[in-house]
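Dear U.,

For the methods section draft, I wanted the exact inputs and outputs in one place so we can describe them consistently. I've listed the two proteins in the order they'll appear in the manuscript figures. Please don't edit the token lines directly; just add comments below if something needs changing.

First protein:
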Amino acid sequence: MRAAGMECVADLSDRARIKAAVAMFTDCPTVSFPLLYQNPRPEKVVDVAFWKSAQRPTRDCGPRHQLSAIAPRASFVHGNFVATILLCQGLAEHLLAAYLHAGVLVDNIPERIQFADTLRRCRERDVISDQDVTDLRHMMELRNPLSHFRHVDDGNNLDRRTIDTGVSAEELLRRDAIFSIGLVVTILAKPAFRLG
């Protein structure tokens, strides 16, 4: 399921997307991960891919970015889904802005660039796709009510989402964390962020 309104990814059942992400991280033309098809919890495969991507050097990212890539994974593994969402949003924002700032592109960026402007500039240069922009905005919508107060009448408020969907807050956060970490894996796999 893709980001649309209040919907979020319920699981990572899109095995083709997972397979593509894992292939990008392992530099294999095909993925021979039997685990991908045998494991009823494919998020574990994405976790492995995320860990591999955090260990690999990327263009425009020094040790600070590598450390910030490890933090969402650690939070996810320990079941701290709120932190996973917050850290994934921060990592995506820093990664994309660092790419723009690194001089790879010709225009200057402001010292404090807004995320919407970062997305626009990255999209204009085909660093990310239209779907990535939609998904990144959705991840921002998931993060904002966790960082900022939202009245219960706000559709993004976690209590409101729980009432509206009949799904527990913990399960909604788990789904949101899976969506967020899967999205960051997808962004890290982009050619702009790989060496070689």
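Second protein (the one for the lower panel):
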Amino acid sequence: MQWLEARTLQRIKGKSKNSTTALNTLEALKFHSDLRAGDDSTKMAEGWETFRLTFIRAITNALTHGCDWMESLACLHVCSRALKTGQQRVRSIVVTAMKDTSLLCNPVLHAMVIVAKLDSSFSLGVPGYSRETPSAAWEACVSRLPGKDALTLANRVFDSYLQKLGDDIDHHTIWSNEQYASEINTRTANCLGNDVRDPAHGRANHHQFTLRWHEAQ
């Protein structure tokens, strides 16, 4: 699991001005309808595959904005127990997490454990839905993490894409494929634009990167 960089987020002190919005977003989560498919494990696995990134983004957003971790878990409990839009399996895991005193003091690690448990729960016995896949790191590249410069972000995106492709291509030949190059640059631009600590700066970086990219084509 590498969807959060724990050391970076643990250095963030205090709440940002958007912390309340982040908590409200977390509490208002509506789980994918396929996650309430009862005994249809394949449909539930598909639902989690679709909804997983939204779930991770909401938690990451709360952590990044310095939200209290117990408050964040309480918001997850509220949204997961909602009758029409919740998910009882998630609720059960969140309730257990709220009692886990050994992990409550480490929010980032705790969040990673929760997602890992959900990954295991929804993919268990369903072929093709294991989270231990080469594409996991690529799927986790959705934003610019606090404290990371643009070069570090670009390297993270590139390395995760190379990992997703596997052994059939290397870093010397990847740029010769127009589709691969476009996907890498598009993801890099989107991550630069998704700067949760400074949205205005993110938009400016996205524009500048896209401009330079098109000039180089």
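Candidate sentences for the figure legend, describing the second protein: Residues 8 and 164 are 24 Å apart (CA to CA). The radius of gyration is 18 Å.

Thanks,
Y.
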